[in-house]
Write a structure and sequence with these properties.
The complex is a heterotetramer, with 2 copies of chain A and 2 copies of chain B. Chain A has 3 helices and 5 strands, in the order βααββαββ. Chain A is globular and about 45 Å long. By secondary structure, chain A is of the alpha+beta class. Chain A has a 5-stranded antiparallel β-sheet with strand order 1-2-3-5-4, covered by helices on one side. In chain A, 31% of the residues lie in helices and 27% in strands. By secondary structure, chain B is of the alpha/beta class. Chain B has 4 helices and 7 strands, in the order βββαββαβαβα. Chain B has a 5-stranded mixed β-sheet with strand order 1-2-4-6-7. Chain B has a two-stranded parallel sheet with strand order 3-5. The longest helix of chain B has 14 residues. The termini of chain B are far apart. Classes of the chains: A alpha+beta, B alpha/beta. Chains in contact: A-B, A-C, A-D, B-C, B-D, C-D. The structure holds adenosine-5'-diphosphate (2 copies). One adenosine-5'-diphosphate binds next to α2 and α3 of chain A.
């Protein structure tokens, strides 16, 4: 990665995996340790998986992913032409409720919680027929401790 | 996309090793299905060796939870060999409080080796 | 073990994207078989996008050579997006002198985009 | 990886892949860049694949892999209880002959060439019914340029 990466791909699970693998290949050329790269991959994966699963639940479309390496971290902008967020804003991402019986443990709903834990400066806009999600992943501080 | 699992019985436990670098949205369902196949009718104690897994997303985490649920309260489901990125997903979601997590495979299977 | 390939026709070329992090001894044969399937009867120019592949061993390299051989002299087989570790295997074995290797996917497909 | 890693596993292709993934997970905890880790994975993969393919061509068995992080690089010792090397020593590993027609290009025989290019202090011993292969992968110098 020079200091910018752009990937455009269809909104499918396999294309998301491929985009993540390409992104990691690029990130490995920056001066980031493996654990930080893992956090970046995780949060971008959650954002992209949600787009495939929810924004493209009933239609096909494309995802446009941009990463820019800046002073305060890695800036990420993700656009898709899928359906808008419910209520016009991204989910709160409450922590999962684990004080339940084994059979009631949640198997999903972690995505937005993880995105909100790891990112900073999260923004969402509906521009014409596009969703535009932006966030920063701080690099340098120990944001990874919970 | 494949999801290669290796399973062997050691003492009274089934040791399942994930032979793939990722448990992600693309393979989460396959992972669940394969875990059901290899654990079906087997020992009551199931240890999942995740030391080859460098990436797990929330779909993968959901699949691991699903495995614990279908094994039920009668069987013990334990994890071993979490790599740093995988461990972080468990820690951030507090799922580390729900699972028995062994620091490494040796610790997980040592009692078995003595017992057998 | 799976070997996920994605293929699409752009202009007069077939662009095949490897969707797996590894082309190793465990999947080399599957890679060859899948390449044969997706390229069969397709355009004369085949571009393999390897930018998702972080690891290729000599079995994987052998499989890539085999693909070039079965495509034959009538069809053009080109590589794009080699990650540093993969590029090193081509460089050390001098195979970089045998293949057409594009620095990135954009360079490989730019002439096509203009042509179509 | 503290400073030592030991893995014992059956001599099969799938077990080799799993061992390599585990090894890389451990190497990522040392202070090595992604390209160096790639070289280490490559050379260990070649050694292990050859054992599965040749030493265990006609029998099953186990492989014992040890890595030790030392001052002059990473020391690797691999033992297997398969059949011995032909002529009692590891192949010379000549560079592949590429000045041939397309249809005659080699699809194999790169393994020992790559091992010899990347490693130093290569040793091979047949001890009782075991093969013992040892080598060092220099870390720090730019051995990776050919
Ligand atoms: N990109 C998106 N587009 C539309 N709806 C979304 C998107 N992301 C999340 N949602 C909605 O927010 C809910 C919570 O998302 P998340 O925390 O990721 O959990 P889940 O695992 O169910 O996707 C989803 O069930 C969905 O209704
Ligand atoms: N571990 C081993 N045990 C026995 N024979 C081996 C071993 N490694 C290599 N050989 C022999 O050396 C030859 C060259 O090895 P190599 O360069 O790795 O090429 P190949 O791709 O054919 O394995 C092999 O064809 C085999 O006959």
């Amino acid at each position: 990665m020079t200091d910018d990466l752009r990937l455009v791909f269809p909104g499918t699970t396999v294309a998301v995996r491929t985009a993540l693998l390409k992104m990691v290949g690029n990130l490995q050329q920056l001066d980031l340790d493996a654990e930080k790269i893992g956090s970046i991959e995780l949060v971008v994966a959650e954002a992209l998986n949600n787009i495939v699963e929810h924004a493209f639940a009933e239609q096909n479309g494309r995802i446009d992913l941009r990463l820019t390496n800046g002073e305060r971290g890695l800036y990420c902008a993700i656009e898709d032409d899928g359906s808008p967020m419910p209520d016009g804003r991204p989910p709160i991402g409450n922590p999962p409720d684990l004080s339940v019986d084994l059979q009631d443990l949640p198997e999903g709903g972690f995505g937005w919680f993880l995105i909100r834990e790891i990112t900073r400066d999260l923004g969402y806009e509906r521009v014409e027929n596009h969703n535009r999600l932006t966030f920063r992943i701080p690099v340098g501080d120990d944001f990874t401790r919970s | 996309m494949g999801m290669e699992l290796n399973s062997e019985t050691i003492g009274n436990a089934l040791l399942v090793t994930v032979c793939e670098p990722r448990i992600d949205a693309a393979v989460a369902i396959q992972f669940k299905d394969r875990m059901r196949e290899v654990s079906d009718g087997g020992p009551d104690r199931v240890i999942l060796d995740m030391s080859a897994v460098s990436f797990l997303d929330s779909s993968g985490l959901g699949a691991v939870v699903a495995v614990m649920k279908f094994l039920g309260k009668e069987r013990s489901f334990e994890l071993a060999g979490l790599t740093p990125t995988v461990a972080k997903v468990f820690r951030l979601t507090r799922m580390d409080s729900i699972f028995t997590i062994h620091p490494d495979l040796e610790t997980a299977i040592a009692p078995l080796a003595n017992a057998s």
